[in-house]
């Protein structure tokens, strides 16, 4: 039967046998080569598994979830289904309640409004989802929020990397006198006697206190330099989302005020209070314009021009939003450049005096106490 098939196909039997042998030889060569390749041992696998992977910034994780929501929306899913699918793919512990609410089919903007969130990145993402659920353009809302969170994470990472070198240098300067003092106390008996005396105890207490104060001041200064102010850009982004959905400037301003916080929230509440008392929205903005910070002044001017002159808000507020993000980047760079000047006070006033009290004074005191002074050196050679 096989012979007949081979003859019918027109392939010579000798040629088929030759090809089969070549294939078998190639398979044997591959197997031998695979055996010669060193396989990672169990210890290597364990070492690779225990190696710490770089952790992503929380804002980047939230941005990835927002991008997934945008993809689901572009495929035709509802906002509830998109949120549920995104949280299943990118589980965020602080947003588990949002997935449960989306699965029940609750009104998302009412659910989000009833929640108090302290995390800035999660709070901004919820504001975008709330704007999308409240009649806004959902794809634009979540995509713009994802871009904003990624930009904010990049600025935070750059600021943290910039202050890490300074913080490490100050930590070395604060630990060096402690190590020197401990080494001299273990090595030299005169230094131990000095630390046991009242002046030595005062030097030790003052040195440790100044050292601790210097570390606290440096930590506070570097943390403040790495902090990114995002209240105004986030407020502008939320107003832009509502305006893109076709809402009037007064309604967009009110929706953004309901979800913002900080100094801009206090000024915005004053505007809404004046507007609620019967005054026109443009007049309320003009009256309380001085309460807003300098970064928020372009927003107020744009709202006044949009409400009074009927300008198209889409391109105007997109430009203002881009300028606000650029201003945030410049502000972060300014803080980083001013960091060496700000660290001069704790360095000169705390770290250097602590170094002198803990390392220099005990060394000099130990050397002076070990010197014997002869009160009559000239009388030794007289008869």
Tell me about the largest β-sheet. none
- Low-pLDDT stretches are 1-16, 32-42, 48-53
- The strand count comes to 0
Average pLDDT, all residues: 76
Sketch the topology as an H/E string, one letter per element: HHHHHHHHHHHHHHHHHH
What is the straight-line distance between the termini?
137 Å
Structural class: mainly alpha
Q: How many individual helices?
A: 18
Q: Give the helix level as a range of percent.
A: over 70%
Overall radius of gyration: 35 Å
Strand content: under 5%
Shape designation = elongated
Structure report:
The protein is mostly helical. It contains 18 helices and no strands. The longest helix is centred in the middle third of the chain and has 50 residues, at 138-187.
Name its key features.
383 residues; mainly alpha; disordered N terminus
Please describe the topology of this protein.
Elements: H1 2-9, H2 13-36, H3 42-50, H4 58-74, H5 79-89, H6 96-104, H7 108-113, H8 120-133, H9 138-187, H10 189-196, H11 198-226, H12 231-244, H13 249-259, H14 263-276, H15 281-287, H16 297-309, H17 313-342, H18 344-369
Helix pairs in contact: 4-5, 4-9, 5-6, 8-9, 8-12, 9-10, 9-11, 9-12, 9-17, 9-18, 10-11, 10-18, 11-17, 11-18, 12-13, 12-17, 13-14, 14-15, 15-16, 16-17
